[in-house]
Prior knowledge:
Elements: H1 3-16, E1 20-22, H2 46-49, E2 59-67, E3 88-96, H3 102-116, E4 126-129, H4 133-142, E5 150-153, E6 166-168, E7 175-177
Parallel strand pairs: 1-2, 4-5
Antiparallel strand pairs: 2-3, 6-7
Amino acid sequence: MKSxxxxxxxxxxxxxxxxxxxxxxxxxxxxxxxLLFTNAGMNQFKDVxxxxxQRPYVRAxxxxxxxxxxxxxxxxxxxxxxARHHTFFEMLGNFSFGDxxxxxxxxxxxxxxxxxxxxxxxxxxxxxxxxxxxxxxxWTKEMGLTPxxxxxxxxxxxxxxxxxxFWMMGDTGTCxxxx
Length: 179
């Protein structure tokens, strides 16, 4: 499947779930002096997450053009050394501004992967933040994954909330466990 087909199927799926499709913002943020380049799909919604802005919709999906050029989770030195690190990429994202949370997000992800993209359920594994029992239970009790296919990832080098399965915008501000 071509990347253009993946992008379109992703956006069509979330549109069918009531998400407003939002165009990619500029690679150079116009009104955000904290960023040199757009480095994540959520950048254009940063003020919404911080409570400074409100949109006329509560669900959004986008294919955001991004440049990897440093930042909090700086892995610029990995560009070119792994198959998943690139300097330019598009980040597919679905967002809820107080409308739904973990249970629905997990359900949407599972349906997208197994129903739309037809990935075989028996070959999929998921990760959860080590202490996130809620996500673990949703995957095992509601989505039907066996416990051996749900991997808990703890903190990196013992530092609290430094796990690959804990996302944060910065030292203060929006943050959450990931799956």
